[in-house]
Design goal:
The structure holds two protein chains of two kinds.
Chain A lengths: L2 H21 L8 H29 L5 H6 L10 H4 L5 H22 L5 H29 L3 H18 L7 H8 L10 H14 L21 H16 L6
Helix pairs in contact in A: 1-2, 2-6, 5-6, 5-7, 5-9, 6-7
Chain B lengths: L2 E8 L7 E8 L2 H12 L7 E6 L11 H5 L23
Antiparallel strand pairs in B: 1-2, 1-3
The chains are: A mainly alpha, B alpha+beta.
């Protein structure tokens, strides 16, 4: 597959898999208002994923459309980061992931507005407003849970500790990204990390939470090496399409 | 704990805020965000107000007769007894 198609898949798979995870909160969030907030975020991400997967299919040139790529690939063919496929855990863990991922994604899309690929730059241009709200939503909850009750603080800290080592993968850089950065298509994810650490660190401090002290960094998702969780997620997401190919409703 | 908030949305510039419903939120900032997600996700608004439901003083159904019925037979209070020039708009 061409470099550009792989890059579009990495971006699109992050959005698609996180959208699927967040949609699991539908009818299960702590309150109805939060139910809508999380599924709104999921729908924003799904919209991004549809365009990015469609673009990946075009760039690949094998005639695969967004549905083929979403529903008919196995887990080893997905290129999302490991953090987005992890089970939701409790609400605090989901919020911890939202804070870390949306802060990364906002900085990334801000750079990709200048991408030489017209579809990627178009998606990024539209999505920065969406993701700015995702980050704001996650920040507000992190502050309230972290600086809330003893129990909410404990859970929020656990969520942050759990997600933190997974966030490192978001800033990975490899030979493929290097080639695309040179062509002006991709952003150098390594450069996003200082501002990310600054923002997330400031939110954690304001929320009276400890910044995890670990150097462990998960890796593998960008090469298709995933945790067990992704297989289960895909089984749910793909079952209808695999049982009834091309089903619509 | 979550408290109840009343939500007012202005659908576009020039119109006033209209009451659209209520929701639960732990504080004002979250109430605004929840209102955004619950009531404006289909482009319904350009401005939102949230007000604690406990701060709303409502007229009582028991006082309905004394409050509202006396207005029923005062047609002279309606501006219908003079001609409105064509040039005057938005009355």
């Amino acid at each position: 597959m061409r470099d550009e198609a792989v890059y579009a898949l990495r971006l699109g798979d992050d959005a698609l898999v996180l959208a699927q995870r967040l949609s699991e909160w539908s009818a299960r969030a702590p309150e109805l208002e939060e139910d809508l907030a999380l599924t709104n975020v999921a729908l924003d991400l799904l919209g991004q994923a549809r365009q990015l997967l469609t673009r990946a299919g075009e760039l690949e040139g094998e005639g695969r459309d967004e549905d083929d790529l979403a529903y008919l690939r196995g887990d080893r063919e997905f290129l999302n980061a490991l953090i987005v496929e992890q089970p939701n855990g409790d609400f605090a863990r989901t919020i911890a992931r939202q804070l870390m991922f949306s802060t990364y994604q906002l900085a990334l899309y801000d750079r990709l507005r200048d991408s030489a690929d017209p579809v990627i730059s178009g998606v990024a241009e539209k999505a920065v407003k969406e993701v700015a709200y995702h980050r704001d939503h996650a920040r507000e909850w992190t502050l309230r849970l972290g600086d809330g009750t003893e129990e909410s603080h404990r859970r929020m800290q656990e969520g942050v500790d759990w997600m933190w080592p997974l966030a490192a993968e978001l800033f990975e850089h490899d030979a493929l990204a290097e080639r695309l950065v040179a062509e002006g298509i991709a952003a150098d994810a390594r450069e996003l990390r200082p501002a990310w650490e600054h923002y997330v660190g400031a939110v954690l401090e304001e929320a009276t939470l400890e910044r995890p002290d670990t150097s462990y960094a998960a890796t593998g998702g960008r090469r298709g090496e995933h945790s067990e969780a992704l297989g289960h997620l895909l089984a749910v997401m793909q079952s209808t399409h695999r049982a009834y190919p091309g089903a619509t409703w | 704990m979550s408290e109840l908030w009343e939500v007012f949305v202005r659908s576009r510039r020039g119109l006033s805020h209209q009451h659209v419903g209520s929701l639960h939120a732990p504080d004002a900032r979250m109430a605004l965000r929840n209102a955004r997600d619950v009531y404006t996700r289909r482009e319904e608004g350009v401005s939102i107000w949230v007000v604690p439901a406990s701060e709303v003083t409502a007229s009582s159904p028991d006082e309905k007769d004394a409050f509202f019925d006396p207005a029923a037979d005062k047609p002279y209070r309606h501006p219908t007894f003079y001609e409105v020039p064509d040039e005057v708009k938005h009355l």
